[in-house]
Amino acid sequence: MYDEEGEVYAYAHSTPISYEVFELNYRLISRAYAAILENGAQFMDIVGPKTAAISLREAGRILYADERDPAERAEALMREIKRLTTIVVKNESGYQPVPFAAAVDRKMITTPDAREVESAIVFFTVAWLMLPRLMRANLCRATLGWGGQTSSLSATDFIASLRTSSVAGSSGAMAAE
Prior knowledge:
By secondary structure, this protein is mostly helical. It contains seven helices and three strands, in the order βαααββαααα. Helix 1 crosses helix 5 (111-130) and helix 2 (44-63) crosses helix 5.
């Protein structure tokens, strides 16, 4: 996430949902994925991260229309995806990990950034689960277009990998003549 000057002020780190959560929600996830594809399969990597949260909620309302609270199943899945997301906020001493919900509640990230992160994490969660293994490489490339990356790093390891100094300093080595 970038501030008004174009400087990174926070990152989002999201861990995939478990297979058990997928199993409980596979119909909702597959319908959300289908809705994302309906919105423009040829531009899925552009449209998908912007519309995924909306698509998931709409899929839940349609799929569970006969239930007392048709939106609750999608919201339960949204809460789980958000629970697995850490916002890494830049501060004076480096980077601070904050759970997604707490970062939103404490206004550590802007509302537009929170919405964009929410939709992007839903998109990459849904797409990763629904794409065949060989097509996931395309998703990894699409992630780069959003300034993201895929890796097996935990949030703690990701923070440790971040550069904490922005000023180039002398290494003490003398230049060769």
